[in-house]
Amino acid sequence: MCELCKNIEWPPLQGKSVVLATTGSISIYRIPDLVRELVRNGANVHVGMSSSSMELVSAEVMKWASGNDPITKITGRIEHISLFERDEGNTVLVIAPASYNTVGKMASGIADNIPSLFFSYAYGKKIPVIIAPAMHRNMFENPIFQENLKKLLSLGVDVVHPLLEADKAKISENEKIMDHIYRAFFGNLLSGKRMLIVSGRSEDLIDPVRVVTNRSTGTAGLWLARNAYRLGARRIVFVGNAESPLPEYVEQHIEYETENFYSQVENLLTNEDFDIVIVPAAITDFYIKGGKLSKKMDSDRSAVIHLEPREKLLIRIRKRFKGKLVAFRLWNSPDNIIKHFSDSSPDMIVFNRIGEKENPFGDGPTSYTIFSREGETEISGINKEEATFRLMIHISQVL
Q: What is the pTM for the complete model shown?
């Protein structure tokens, strides 16, 4: 196993510091939950509150959520400096919610409240800065605000864009803000990489209603996409399906029918360059001889369906793609696993066991055996989020 993989602890924000500054937006009601999630992920969280935000949520709530006394005013302890001096290599500043007023102050160099003052020092010290705007939609779409946002983006500030619904620009979901925080800490590992992930179950039509399919949920692919973003991938394209929605930073091509999987993947590989292709998809290994019936089968009669082996998707991928290829194998044992992939020659094989005691579907306990030029590596007994995070770390170091 690569050295970094051995040293990654879980939860992975252990030893990391998050300074979180709040502004006067009603969306602040979501922030105590975000703080608690950061703490559960191992982070040491210090909250700074503007006076207007304290009118909406008390400082005691933030103390309960973080376990630390919140900063509500700047004293002779120069908190806007000392918070960022403690562990400067492992600290990020998050401003959430970021109001119209505070974003304007940040862009104009004004530092007259706690969030803008924190920003003035952190940005000058090259501490990563993340903002999550929230306001009325007309305010968000105001050209002056958009210019301020563009200026901050051009300066390297990371923006978690709000959800535009009716007349609101709502603060983004906490899980997406978490992904951006992870990216601030780990984004150098896959920085600039372009990734294609093929995931989910495929279906072959028997008739207009019935299909041959499998139990895959697409959970591994979803977490691979999220963790690719957390590790800094520049572009993430997902072909297939998942039971839960993917974040907007993933370009998703929703597919179910097997032939559509093949054609969409081949089209992308023909027209775009990728650095890494990862295929945890559960593609049906057979096609229905004669194709689907034009009418629904009569359920009062017996029926015989002939299944014929189809060419593997990995082989079709390898014909068009010469970059790094990661294949998944769901089987009873890893015997002859290298020989099984001889025609597609993947750079890494991830073996996922199935049997009476193993259930690889969904987000339950997951065990992977990874085969690569580094030899064999075991990732065992953990959920999909952690298993795929460790797998993506391994990919970043080995491929």
A: 0.95
